[in-house]
Amino acid sequence: MTRILSRGKIISLGIIVLLLALVAAQINISSSAERIPYQDSTRVAEGRALYNENCASCHGIQLKGEPNWQKRDADGFLPAPPHDMSGHTWHHPDKLLFTLTHSGVQAIAGPDYVSKMPAFKEQLTEHQIWSILAYIKSTWPDEVKERHDALNEQ
Ligand code: HEC
């Protein structure tokens, strides 16, 4: 029987196919932005502890925020908003929530914006911030989680 392709050629073709698959996987990894890992129970548990330690003093242990959170106080500061579905945390995509927590409100609203919300980049690792956001998102009702997932796809 005459072979159309030699064994050596078949092996080379196999290697080329493998390399192309690796390149495709790589492109896929680098283009997919990091997402809030709210379905990972280990990250949620880690995030709950970190939230209670770093965020609850202002945003509340029940994520309810401060009273009258929509009104600036006498000094012009906004009180801490809730992170449950009554606030607008869930109106913001993952990356924006990460930037607000990591770099502070000024990173979004401009350097002159005054806020009591601290930037956490010195105190918390990026991994820890994503875990805290995972805890926050895990407390939302399924419907709100789905709407938030859809927001991230836009
Ligand atoms: C010292 C009080 C304080 C602490 C501690 C604090 N925050 Fe805030 N946070 C605020 C205030 C006040 C705002 C409103 C920001 C403004 O001035 O517009 C805010 C706003 C936010 C927002 C934007 C919410 C929205 O609806 O736009 C996010 C997200 C947020 N905080 C996350 C966190 C996380 C996560 C932690 C813990 C790692 C944390 N905050 C700790 C006071 C605080």
Which helices and strands, and how do they pair?
Elements (H helix, E strand, L loop, with lengths): L6 H25 L9 H14 L1 H4 L34 H10 L2 H4 L16 H13 L3 H12 L1
Heme C binds next to helix 3 and helix 4.
Q: Secondary-structure element order, as H and E?
A: HHHHHHH
The counted number of beta strands is 0
What is the level 1 CATH name of the largest domain?
Answer: Mainly Alpha
The CATH architecture of the largest domain can be named as: Orthogonal Bundle
Q: What bound compounds does this protein have?
A: heme C
How many angstroms does the end-to-end distance come to? 56 Å
Strand content: under 5%
Largest sheet: none
Average pLDDT: 91
What does this structure look like?
By secondary structure, this protein is mainly alpha-helical. The protein has 2 domains: 1-32; 41-153, Orthogonal Bundle (Cytochrome Bc1 Complex, Chain D, domain 2). The protein is 53% helix and 0% strand. α4 (94-103) crosses α6. The structure holds heme C (HEC).
